[in-house]
Amino acid sequence: MHLTRERFFEILDAPRPFSEARLHDLRQDRRVPVDLTAEIVPLEYGLPGTPTHVQITELSAGGISLVSPVPRPLGGRFALKLPSNSGPQLVVVCEIRHCRLAGRGSFHVGAVFLRSAEGEFDEVLPAFASLA
Q: For a tag site, which of 54, 61, 72, 111 has the least CB within 10 Å?
C-alpha cells in the first residue's frame, strides 16, 4: 500500500511544485526526513492495544521510520494516525520490519504501510484490529 502523492505532500506540508526528478524519486519510495509526533495503537489478537506517542523521523510513500519509547515486535502491526492539515484524518495499518535500540531507552522502528482509511481514529480502529 502506498500513500497517494497528494496525501504524501499534505503530511509533509511541503511546498509545491517539485521538480520532475524529485517526483520520480518519491514514486520509488524515497525517504524524506521529518520531525512529527504521532500516535500509534498496537493491534494484537484482534484487539487494539494501549496508544503510544512516537516521533516520526522518516516518511516515504510506502513506509515510515519512527522512534518508540518501547520495543516493538518484528512482524507486529499497529495503527498510525497521520497528521493532516486539511480533509479527513488518515489512519494507516503498518507492519514492523525492524526494531533496534536507539539509546537512552528508545527504539528505532521501521514499518511498511499495509492498509489505510480516512476518518476519525476511534471509528476506523475497530475494523483494523481484526487485521492483527
A: 61
Q: What percent of the chain has pLDDT over 90?
A: 33
Instruction: Please tell me the distance from the alpha carbon of residue 62 to that of residue 27, in angstroms, as a whole number.
Output: 9
Peptide bond into 17 cis (omega under 30): yes
Place of cell 517539485: 18
pTM of the model: 0.74
Please tell me the total number of residues recorded for the chain in this structure. Answer: 132
Beta carbons of 115 and 125 less than 8 angstroms apart = no
Structure-block grid coordinates of residue 130: 481484526
Q: Which three cell numbers stand for residue 8?
A: 504524501
Give the residue from 64, 66, 3, 55 showing the smallest Cα distance to 31.
64
Section 58-74 average pLDDT: 93
Over residues 21-45, mean pLDDT: 73
SS3 per-residue string spanning 70-83? CCCCCCCEEEEEEC
